[in-house]
Description:
Blueprint: E1 3-5, E2 25-28, E3 31-34, H1 50-54, E4 61-63
Antiparallel strand pairs: 1-4, 2-3
The structure holds iron/sulfur cluster (2 copies).
One iron/sulfur cluster (SF4) binds at residues 3, 19-22, 24-25, 34, 39-42, 49-51.
Amino acid sequence: MAFQIIVDNCTVCGACEFECPNAAIAFADDTYVIDPELCTECKGHFETEQCAAVCPVPETCVPV
Length: 64
Ligand code: SF4
Ligand code: SF4
């Protein structure tokens, strides 16, 4: 399982990028995207998904 960023909700604030323990979040094509191959839903690192925890916009970092 992986998380995804809902592009229409993302304000491109960048808060999530450096919180990811797997460096799965990157800026591309004017928005931030999560590489599903790298996202582990933070398992083994944190109790909660860090991108969703820091994102100021509700329902923007959500499960695929
Ligand atoms: S859920 Fe965790 S591992 Fe997946 S993109 Fe968000 S911060 Fe990174
Ligand atoms: S924290 Fe949320 S609004 Fe900010 S760049 Fe990441 S997904 Fe977009």
